[in-house]
Amino acid sequence: MGSAGLAQAPLRQDSPDFTYDSHNNISPDDQRGSAVPVTKATQDIKEVISNPTIPRAALNIQDERQNLAASVHPAYFRGSKFDRVPYWQRIHRWEDIGEREFLSYRWNTAKDVQGKEKLYYFLKEELPEKMPDTPEYEHTRTRDAFLEDVIRGIDLAPMSIRLTPHILASINWNDPLNDPLSRQFIPKKSTFQPDHPKLELDSLHESDDSPVEGLVHRYTDKCLFLASSHCPLYCRFCTRSYAVGADTETVTKAALKPARRRWEAMLDYIAATPVIQDVVLSGGDSYSLMPQHLAIIGSRLLEIPHVRRFRVATKGLCVSPSRTLDPNDDWTEELIKLSKEARLRGKHVAMHTHFNHPNEFSWVSREAAQKLYANGVTVRNQSVLLKGVNDDIDTMKGLIRELADNNIQPYYVYAGDLVKGVEDLRTPLSTILDLETQIRGSIAGFMTPQFVVDLPGGGGKRLAASYKTYDRATGRSTFVAPAVHGKNKEGRLYEYYDPLASLPNGGESVDFAAIEHIVI
Ligand code: SF4
Hints:
The protein is an alpha/beta fold and 520 residues long. The protein has 3 domains: 3-91, no CATH class; 105-187, no CATH class; 215-462, Alpha-Beta Barrel (TIM Barrel). 33% of the residues lie in helices and 12% in strands. The chain has 19 helices and 14 strands. It has helices spanning 3-8, 28-31, 38-50, 56-66, 75-82, 99-102, 105-111, 115-126, 143-156, 165-170, 180-185, 260-271, 291-303, 316-319, 322-325, 331-344, 363-374, 393-405, 429-439; strands at 113-114, 162-163, 215-216, 222-226, 278-282, 309-313, 348-353, 378-384, 409-414, 450-455, 460-463, 469-471, 476-480, 493-497. The strands form 3 sheets. The protein has a 9-stranded mixed β-sheet. A 3-stranded antiparallel β-sheet has the order 12-13-14, with no helix packed on it. A two-stranded antiparallel ribbon has the order 1-2. α13 (291-303) runs parallel beside α16 (331-344). It is globular, with a radius of gyration of 23 Å. The chain starts with a helix and ends in a 23-residue tail after the last strand. Residues 231, 234-235, 238, 240, 244, 283-285, 315 line the site of iron/sulfur cluster. Keywords: 4Fe-4S, Iron, Iron-sulfur, Metal-binding, Pyridoxal phosphate, S-adenosyl-L-methionine. Residues 1-36 are annotated as: Disordered. This is Kama family protein. GO terms for molecular function: 4 iron, 4 sulfur cluster binding; catalytic activity; metal ion binding.
């Protein structure tokens, strides 16, 4: 179903189970059961602009609609972001799915698209026979060419395929070659670029910094607790592609199974190491933990006297936000309980999530974020800078503002890690430096993210602008990390490399083997 069809056709949905989120200031009766036709939107705009008593928030919404005609985005992105429309019904197989089912986490996990074969059939149903013309992809303008490109791309990819209904419903299938969400999650052979010669599978050397399997202890007072190696969706660019998800044709994973015995060993290490005050509960994705397992690990961490705070890392709010609103799923309730329990103990529990593009938001995301905010859960966001996804100033500004408006703190923007098989998504260091220069001052300082590089070799996160040297001919930048200690780390100079495609002549004249680690 195309965007024009969605804008004009009435859409089916069940009676909503949830109270409408009043901060959008739209009457549910006006919105329930149908997308707003463009003609009605035009009337609304006139009415709102001519009536000064209508709240500013509503005016913004109408302004957004007014911009639709000139916008490159399909109408439904704006509509589904602000209005309670059943945006998933634009997917053929979900045309009859109502709100009650879509908001059920059980339904979402049953309907996700996992593996090459299921993705193939999904794409076959959804794609138009012809793609819009684009000079960049002159060989993949038909559906069959696109399908072949994807199937061959999967064979080269380090990450397996898993996509959630929310993300599938947020991609513009009329233009999947350029869609910023499709680029993040669906590999294509035509965009594949050779790996950088300095790239390693575990580029951050997490395994080297693990005193117990699945527990990374790099910074003195902080550790990373890898509880599971599963996620509700797999990102092409995952830093932890050495361990996360199922094996692929190119990578056999060092799987970190969600096992009580392994968790006990990690918790024992934390309890016996008083210098650890801060724990990141991650994976994989903490969303893949059962609610009772989240409660058990969280309670144990809160009981350790020297653990002052922990964060629960999950992309779930971005890729499957309905779970937060599902009254039959306890994951969010357990997180809220842990957050409240932590406050009573004078400790702090937060959620760290991962949005990369404004199109990842819908009204479901907004209501889910509002539920967390209303219940006192601090939510911070860590974005990855990705070529063709969010590496332009308008998109990055839009993302930061969207996060801020949803009371999600824009915490980090990472330069893409040197990860196997995804060189097409990396940008040179100069891109993140330019973005920071342009964005700083455009929004309040406390809503301005830190633009960082997670240093290959295990130096941790450093501000991108803190580089010691940057040679644009070789793409090599260097950093120091004096607070990070450990084997071979004292006085070490850490290196980051721009992608080969961004170098003069694609880096052909650079002898990377001759560029060695330097100790200062
Ligand atoms: S959600 Fe996080 S851990 Fe999972 S694939 Fe994406 S980046 Fe990797």
